[in-house]
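Here is a typical sample entry:
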Amino acid sequence: MFERTPTVRRLSHRKRWTYILPVVVFIYVICYIDRTNISFALPHLKTDMHLTGAQQGLASGIFFWGYLLLQIPGGYIAERWSARQWIAILMVLWSVAAMASGLTHSVGQLLLARFLLGVAEGGVQPALMATIRAWFPFAERGRAFAIFKLYTPIAAIVAAPFSGVILTYLDWRWMFVIQGGAPLVVGLFAWLAVVRDTPAKAGWLSQVEREYIESARVREGEQLQPRGTFKAAFTSKIVWQFALIYTLTQMGLLGLTLWMPSVLRKAFHTDLTVGLVAILPQLAAGAAIILVGRSADRRGGHIAHMSVVLAAASLILAGASLVSAQQKWLVLLAMILGTAASIAWYGPFWATVTKLTPVAAAGAGMGLINGVGNLGSFFGPYIGGWLSDLSGGGYALTQVFFGVVFGVAALLVLTLRRRLHAATLTQPMLPPRPITVDNKDFQ
């Protein structure tokens, strides 16, 4: 039996959790704000550029078509070349495209800028995931990916007031320029100063810490320098199963987005009250993400955690169809629980992806899963709108459908249980042998 080394573990964990993850989260918060800030600008764009409803929808949605282009190449390049340098290049490109949105004077120019923004941002997430995979063993990835997913509630809380202040005192052009310049001015500096592709290249780690991180991954059966291929990603059945699960969860998340805000406004009436209570679901989501990711790592039940959370999301979304705007506290409770359950599965999911995806498909596979999965965000609104029309303009049928979607995702997750158990059984998640060093290594 191997002995634990508390001092080494604490030192190793503190450096990874406080150096790598804060920068990763910060970068993707900026990324997410630049992706969604057009929703705040649309009323002004409608007036200044005379956009039709269709053009507004296209300006919002064209981002996702560009976003698909670099998903698979993004993960592949990060793994085969350098995630650090690749993301630095993409940050410059996305910053330029984001700021260019504020300099447009026609619909065509706006669409081009938003499309290019999607292209640049598309390669970022799979590259960031490859970075997390390189720095955290499987036994800790549930927490690591959960912390990464905090970008969703953080961006949701920050984006509205940040954009509102700029729009109040300046205009929509300055909003795009200021928010687009953030990754170039702050994010790029932080990224290049702190992050390295592997622990072996990080000067701020001691030799003991490097050996701990890398030996833990080796003992779990992972290659420190995987060499993936596009073919391996496209031909892997498990990769496509993960992609299907992720697509369904993104569609289910749309069920929450379609129904909750409108009913919340009807229930609480004033914009100020709605703005205040809307923060609560995001805070609950942040707490749920961390708690579920931490519990999955400590208890080892990644599949159980995912299936329970997705089943809860299914019941909440389907049950929400029975809640009326007059039951305002039930509306708020449903929104809090629904928001938390709809994204709390994220940490265990991506930890499982990195464990079960074949080594040859690792980088490109994560990009394929994320890219295909985001199609759920594109098609979800169309399905939801069609069901709403079918039911006479209500959201009850839409909510039931998206609840069922989450339920199907939960069932698909359960089919992975034996496979993950076999993978962790044959490659036990044990800590490395204790390393005896002089005390000065810990100072």
Notes: The chain has two domains: 1-223, 226-429.
